[in-house]
Structures are given as C-alpha cells and as structure tokens.
Amino acid sequence: MTPQHHLPADIERTSFHIITEELEMMGLTPPPEHEAVVKRVIHTTADFDYARNLRFTPCAVEQAVKALHAGAVIVTDTNMALAGITKPGLAKLGGTACCYMADPEVAAAAKEAGTTRAVAAMKKAAQEHPGAILAVGNAPTALLTIAEQIESGLRPALVIGVPVGFVNVVESKERLFAVCEKHGVPAIVAMGRKGGSNVAAAICNALIYSAAEMLDPSARGWK
Amino acid sequence: MTPQHHLPADIERTSFHIITEELEMMGLTPPPEHEAVVKRVIHTTADFDYARNLRFTPCAVEQAVKALHAGAVIVTDTNMALAGITKPGLAKLGGTACCYMADPEVAAAAKEAGTTRAVAAMKKAAQEHPGAILAVGNAPTALLTIAEQIESGLRPALVIGVPVGFVNVVESKERLFAVCEKHGVPAIVAMGRKGGSNVAAAICNALIYSAAEMLDPSARGWK
C-alpha cells in the first residue's frame, strides 16, 4: 500500500490519539497537569521513556503558563532549541525567545574566565532576563551554572533541564532539580541520560500551546 | 558529590568511549563503516535503539563522504536540523547547508498545489540542488516526495530519512529505502517511529567529521 499525503493538523491529532492510547495500555497515563508536556515530548521523540523520566516540581506547568501569559522571555542554551520553538505561538502571547551561544560577548567572557560558552551564556541570561524561562537541552554545565545562580538568589520563572548525554548529565539534572525544589523555583527535568534540544523545544511548545489555549479555547490544542 | 565542570572536547571523548563499551556489552557494535554515524546518533539521543534502527544502503557513508569532499550542498526539511549542523566543519569542506521551509516561494507553491510546505520545499530542493544530500528529520511527506522524484530520475548524493512520528512515518521510511535501493541512491534511514531533526543533524555531522578527518587526520575525530 502506498502511504498517503495527509494534512499536518490531522496527523498531529491522530498522533496524540495514538500516544494517549499507548500510554494508557502501558499504565503510564500522566496526571492531567503534566499531560500536555509529556505527550508533546513523546510526539517529538517517539520515545515513551519520557513518561517515566520527566519530573515536575509542584505546579510547575501552572506557573510556567502564568509566566508566558505575562510575556516571559524564553532563553535556550542552543540555537537548535531556539529554532524549534513556535515563534507565531509565542508572539501571540507577547513573548520572545533568544539564545546567547553565538553572542561574541559570551565567547569573549568564556575565554577570559576559562569556562565554556554554555556557562557564560547562562550567566548573561541570568543578568539580562532574571525572570526568564531557561531551557537547557544540551549543556550540563549550563544547568550547573543555573543551580549556582539560584543558590545566589536568581529566581527564573521556570527551568527546563533536559540536557542529553553520558558525562555529568545525570548528576547535573539531579542537582538542578534538588536546588529548584529547595528554593521553590519551578522546574521540569528529564531525569537520566535522555533529553536534547528537540525535547527542550517540545516542552516550550507544549507550554506555549497550553497558555494560548487558555486565552482562546479555539486555538490549536495539543490533544 | 558536586558534579564538576569539564571541557566539551573531553566530555565528547569520554562519551564516545562509554557508548563504544555499552554497544559492545549489548552485542551491538556496528560495522566499521557505520560506526561514526551510529555512535554520533546515540551521542545525540542517549538512545541505543538506534544501533538497531539505522539502515544503510551499501557504501552509503563512503559515497556521502565523497560527495562532501566534492562540496555537496545539504538540504534539510527543518530549520531546526539546519541549526544543528556544524557550520565551521562544513565550511572547511567547501560545503553549504540550507532549508526551504521558510521560503515565501515555497509557501505560495504549497498553497497553489494544495500540498504541504514540506512537499513544496523538497520539490524546490530537487530543482535547485539535484545532487544534494537531502536530510529529512521531520516530514514523512518530504520523504515521499523524494521517493517520487527518484522514481522520476532525481539522483541525490544521499538521502537521510529519519522523520519521527506515529502516522505515515514507518511506511514512508520503508518506501524511501526500497526506492533508494532499487535505483542505487545512497540512503541512511532510521526504521520505525524514531528519528527527528536532532538525529538528521547528528548524521550530517558524523559525515562531515568523517570527511574532514579523511582530509586531515589531526582534525576533530568522532571516537
């Protein structure tokens, strides 16, 4: 049988239906407040492990949606995550997204401090946008920098901690989550090795769609 | 124990060492010609399923490296995949990368033909760069368009077929692989549901690093 061309919106609806059914069969249906995020990450990766890996501080989604309604800036740790965030959706909420990895000032600061660009970029993010949504899909060092900054008083609207990898990644996510819990900072973290820029963007998009849907129930939903 | 800040190059070396060891323990060590691609995809996703999912037409990597040495253009189906491709690495080989998804001509052509932008973007790619490396990490419709074009005579240097998803994705990848095999077009395809823009970019980068290493053995390797 030749596969048919379908419309993207129909494909998305059918995909979420399949994800919902398979999660149910596996006994992994997420609680309603996490549903949009968990399902969109699975939609992005086709990896049901995320139903087990994703951890949320209490009311993290609610607080992130509130921040998006207030026009929060999203700062990502890679241009790839930035490219994956829905710009029309974010613009409707009056929000913006940015990434400092290619910033010449950041490169200079990293060189001077003998650190990584990821660390210098997150320090700049903390300075420029102290109440931002920080989305980290790549660099565990960025996550550790955020943890340090939170201990020194930074209060981001949300930290999305989903770097992927084999060295320092598991530990950096555990550390970040513990620090966020301790200081009451909302966090969504993919525990374990898995994650990525695509996962970071998917979580941002789930939150953006949820925020838009709340303002206009006829807007594109995630179900 | 507090996780330490490490240098990115050290982290990458250690990560590939861990991946090599775990693949060996699982009895999934890839053949030497596929090693760079398989390991970099696992490095990008922390998902060892790709050791089983990735399929290559005979000599696909060798032919892709040859095309990169000849300055082949890489065309991606998303700006996210484009953002993930190493630009300095590609520039050293004299190559470039592009994506037509945000092209106003493509949007107009899609509207006129009542099709998706992904389809119109791949048609434009086939016209503008008939000998390109086509990297599809998102849209199964883009993959089906490439299959049709190959049946009509298009001969891309390589097709990377790694869209992710639940509807039409598995079938579109099987169809593309069969068409590539039949017509002797090099292809690297992630069979099954998994894939993504990050996987498409990772495969491009593995090929770029391999091509660079062949010209200059002191260049950044993948091991």
TrEMBL record, chains A, B:
InterPro entries: Cbl_synth_CobH/CbiC (IPR003722), CobH/CbiC_sf (IPR036588). One of its GO terms (biological process) is cobalamin biosynthetic process. Pathway: Cofactor biosynthesis; adenosylcobalamin biosynthesis. Residues 10-209 form the Cobalamin biosynthesis precorrin-8X methylmutase CobH/CbiC domain. Its EC number is 5.4.99.60. The keyword Secreted does not apply. GO terms for molecular function: cobalt-precorrin-8 methylmutase activity; precorrin-8X methylmutase activity. Pfam families: CbiC (PF02570). Keywords: Cobalamin biosynthesis, Isomerase. Belongs to the CobH/CbiC family. PANTHER family: COBALT-PRECORRIN-8 METHYLMUTASE. This is Cobalt-precorrin-8 methylmutase. It comes from Faecalibacterium prausnitzii.
